[in-house]
Amino acid sequence: MNETDHGVNESTHATLWSGDTDTANLTALANSRGDGESPSELRLLAAGTDIPLDAPPAAVEQWNEGELTEFPETGPSESVYPARAEPVDGRFIADAHATLVTVQPSTRARLSVGDAPLYVADRGDVLGVVDYRIAVPRDDRSGLYRVSWRLADHEITETRLLVNESIVARGDGTRTPTLAYDLDDAADEPRTLTLEAEIAISLIRTTRVGDRTCRSVNNSTNCTTTWTTSVRTIEETRTVSDSIDVVGYELDVSGARTRYPNGDIGIVLYKNQPWLGYSLGEGSVSGVWRFYSARDLSWDTLTRSDGTGETVEHSPVHPLQVHAYPIKTGPTAAPRSHIELVETYGEQVVPPTLPEDINLDVLTDPYTASYGIATRSAGDETAPWQVTARGLVGREHVVLDPADLPSVPMNRSNLTLAIENTTGETITVRLDLRDAGSGAAIDTSERNESIHIADREVDTGPDGTATVTLDRDVGGVSARYEPRPWWFGGTAYVGDSDAVYPRGVVLQTVRTLFEFAIPLALLLFGVFVIDRLTGWAVWPPWRGL
Questions:
Q1: How far apart are the C-alpha atoms of 433 and 218, rounded to whole Å?
Q2: Among 124-138, 267-281, 529-543, where is mean pLDDT lowest?
Q3: Could you tell me what percent of the chain has a pLDDT over 70?
Q4: Looking at CB atoms within 10 Å, which of 186, 193, 522, 531 has the fewest?
Q5: Cβ pair 268, 278 in contact under 8 A
């Protein structure tokens, strides 16, 4: 393999061919180049397995553009087409087709079983090929009615690109058209892209009709033939097409921000379509999606037709397609010392199965589609920071200024417990939940939150308090306040907890001993220090007993 095929270097090229035949003999591969150089580590790795990618590889578009130039040249007497093509015949035009090679940038998102939309950028290109042959009729030179045929002209008069049924681009008569489209911000809307080509030919039909006259002269017959010649130009046009269903993809992200009481940065971003994730300062977070690149198997062979038969040959054109899939490891954040993945949320989805020849770890249990991602990262109140969101299609990204995101204030909370009454069987505890800074009461019933105490969930009222009676156990009573996610709006809080211990016979005795032991220990320690400093020899106090 040329190191610079279509300008794609060897290491990058090796990562683009998921689904190829893996080899177990990597030692032989390492010695197979024959140019005195060792293959890259990535090439060796890709030879034994498929490689998950963290982002849609830009090299796929570069490769496909180069592959378009590899489509074989043909003359008017033969046509070549891939397995996915549907060639059509006219009167003289035969095996005609216009076939889509790829739409780019695009990503085939394998969301679930039977659901794998082709997401395309709102602006992109359609690459295609067009070919045909001309079945020129055979000449008839027998008898007094003779017909001969000659090809006068043939061409692809125009190529067109349609979005649904509207023409959005026109091209000239190239056999390998590249046509640009604009979906006009049609995010999440299904569309049909259609490549059309109009083929026109003209044939010259020459007809000669003979008028034979015979006379008898001197017992012999003399015949003469008078020929009448007519020439006619016969034209034929044929429109061929190929369509593909796509879904418009546009990265339009919204969200919110907060500052934790300790200065950490909280960010939540969400989108109505699957997306990759975002970076924040020195860290980044990725949702459940990863990528692989694989060739379009329908282009593995080409059929060559010349009117006398068909032959199947290896195709020199191998277009690549980017695929997204839910990876087994799930959402990740890096580096973990800098950024924490707080939550991913979205609908629960049954994961897809990957094609049999793709050797990658896909989720097997229902997963949460990462339409929303919340993170917490170490931040500096005075340092500038920005968020860069990344999409599933191409190099699409959005840079967000934090000032454009709504800010949610976050305060500390203060939860305190107090024992109001105890019996031999029960204990009554009063809970008090307040804003640690202002002292304002926190009403959990209004905020759709709860305080967990023992095996119960308790709500505080407008005064921030609640009273609960529990079965009395030997141990203490603990409670914790679990606030709702901060991005739900309003003032957010950091959770808090507290614990109290009922006074029983044993606990009371321990408490009493503890209360006397501390002062006594301090007194004895003072005597010890004075003895060492003064040399009075009074330590230990019981030495004279």
A1: 138
A2: 529-543
A3: 88
A4: 522
A5: no
Distances (CA, A) of 465 to 219, 235, 415, 430, 458: 139, 91, 10, 7, 10
Cα 318 from Cα 108, distance rounded (Å) = 17
CA distance 437 to 414: 9
Q: What is the mean pLDDT of residues 302-324?
A: 96
Q: How far apart are CA 48 and CA 54, in angstroms?
A: 19
What is the model's pTM?
0.82
Share of the chain above pLDDT 90, in %: 64
> Radius of gyration (Cα) for the chain, nearest Å?
40
CA distance 477 to 419: 9
Q: Is residue 18 a contact partner of residue 51, using CB atoms and an 8 Å limit? A: yes
State both tokens at 125. 């290109």
Task: From residue 443, give the alpha-carbon distance in Å to each of 170, 246, 493, 497.
Answer: 64, 49, 12, 16
Nearest-angstrom CA–CA distance, 495 and 414 = 8
Query: Is the separation of the CB atoms in 385 and 264 below 8 Å?
Result: no
Half-sphere exposure of 342 (CA within 13 A, CB side): 17
Q: Which residues contact 11 (CB under 8 A, 6 or more apart)?
A: 40, 41, 42, 43
| 229 within 8 A of 208, measured Cβ to Cβ | yes
Going from the C-alpha of 452 to that of each of 109, 113, 312, 488, the distances in angstroms are 41, 39, 71, 20
End-to-end CA distance of the chain: 97
